[in-house]
Every structure is written in structure tokens, then in C-alpha cells.
Amino acid sequence: MTRALVLGGGGVTGIAWELGVLAGLAQGGIRLMSADLIVGTSAGSLVAAQITSGTPLETLYAKELQDTAAEPSAGLPRGWLARFAWNAFTSRSTQSFAKRMGKVAMNTPAARDARAVIGACLPSQTWPDHNLRITAVNASTGELAVFDRASGVELADAVTASCAVPGYSQPVTMLGERYMDGGMGSGTNATLARGYDQVLVIAPTVSGFGAMKSVKFDLKALSDDSSVVVISPDAQARKAIGANVFDASRRGPSAEAGRAQVSRALESIAAMWA
């Protein structure tokens, strides 16, 4: 019996919500770290790197509850959503959409040291022994790339690339190519769990958007014999997360909402992840 854990993208609040969900599942006795495969996309890549570092989940969860008054809240540039929507709905394929967003990414001004920010969030700079896969998208071709400990790139670089939202962060150069947000085609890349018997998807965003693939679309690629459970924010969690997923002040409420909603999913997950 093989099992895969898939962690999707969703910004700063998505990271907090996912850690809340994971902490709640662990408290309920569900040992997700026994997964044979862990896939991280965008915000989920940071969560995946954190939980495979050996740091206790309660420690990671508690950090999300800390006072964020000193942290600047960010947002996407003016007009970004309109451009994103236009590209998503006028692109003929997911790859062509990602290629368009790659142009946005490569024209993003250098406003901050994203790698330093991501590196500070990683308890370890070393790839774990787990079968961890970090996704990113080639900014030039729009093709999905998957990195692991055998890829010859540093963990912090892979996670920074996976979190590099076009228009917000510049692409990351690895192995002679430039890579951007792993969610610029699919918010979860759950297709990477193809062939696994049991699949748990934890994703702040599950819907599709034009050429952007939905979780439901990705899951069609899995075997009919696969048991799949998807956890996404419930109404209370969506309210806690709010409209701006880069609002650091909502980290604590998002984490707490994620943990609170898990109690209603424990039975179905426990039945699968025995």
C-alpha cells in the first residue's frame, strides 16, 4: 500500500492554514510523515520542506500564531489579477498560459531577496531523506519541473522558485534555467501522485481558473483504484484567510481555522491512512 501527501499553493495564509490542518491531523493520531511521496507546490513546497525537516509540527504551528505586527503585509501589483485572468482565459493550453506568465515573471523588478526570506523559514537547508518533490515551472517554456534531492539543486533554491509568484518575485536560476511558481499551471500538481494507492491532498485552493487546472482535473489522472481525500478551507477558514493571501496579520487566524476544521475530517482520513 503506497501513500502520497500533496500540499498545494495559497500564499502566506495558505502556509498557516496547511500547518494548522497538519497539526490537527497529527493530534488526531494520523501519521502523515509515513507517506511514500510528499509533493509541494508554491506555498505547499515551503510547508513540505518544513514538515520533513524533523521539526515537530507543534513547533511549526506555534510559530504561525506569533505576533506578526512587525511583518509587512504584501500584495500583488496593481492590475496583476486582471492580467492573470486575461492570460488564463485566453490561453489555449496550460503550458501556453504558464509561458505567458513566465514573461511577467522575468519582467518582475528585483524588489527583495526572496531566497533569504524563504531560507529563514526553512528549519533545515538540507534535502530530507523523505521522497520530497518540489514543483516549479520553467519561465521560458512554461513546462513543469520537479526537483528532489537527486536534482543537483539546493533545497532553498527549489522552494524559492516554487514560491516565486510572477509579478511579485523574480524567477530563480537553477541548472542554467529560470524557474517560477510551481502553481502556474496547477495549484497542487496532484498528477504527480499517479500510481499511489492512497492520496491525501491538502490545498487552500482547489478550483480551476481558465487554463489553470483544478484539483478535480488533476485527480482524473490518478488510477481508479486510488483512494483520494481532498481537504480545502471550509467557510470559517475562508473567512479567516480573507481576500489577500499575502496578509501576514491573518496567519494566526488561518492556522487556527485549519486546525479547527480537521476534527470534521478525521474519520474519513483515518479510514484511508491506517
Rg (CA only):
17 Å
Please tell me the overall pLDDT: 92
Strand content: 5-15%
Query: Span between N and C termini?
Result: 10 Å
H/E topology pattern: EHEHHHHHEEHEEEHEHHH
Fraction of residues in helices? 25-40%
* Total strands: 8
Poorly predicted residue ranges: none
Number of helices: 11
Major β-sheet profile = 8 strands, mixed
Structural class: alpha/beta
Principal-axes shape call = globular
Description of the molecule:
- This protein has about 270 residues and is α/β, with parallel strands linked by helices.
- It contains 11 helices and 8 strands.
- It is about 40% helix and about 15% strand.
- The longest helix is centred in the N-terminal third of the chain and has 17 residues, at about 10-25.
- It is globular and about 45 Å long.
- The relative contact order is 0.23.
- The model has no long low-confidence stretch (mean pLDDT about 90).
Descriptive terms for the model:
single chain; 8 strands; alpha/beta; globular; eight-stranded mixed beta sheet; 274 residues
Architecture blueprint of SSEs:
Layout: E1 3-7, H1 11-27, E2 37-41, H2 43-51, H3 57-64, H4 80-90, H5 94-106, H6 114-121, E3 132-138, E4 144-147, H7 155-162, E5 172-174, E6 177-180, E7 198-202, H8 215-219, E8 227-231, H9 235-241, H10 251-262, H11 266-272
Parallel strand pairs: 1-2, 1-7, 2-3, 7-8
Antiparallel strand pairs: 3-4, 3-6, 5-6
Helix pairs in contact: 1-2, 1-3, 1-10, 2-7, 4-5, 6-7, 9-10
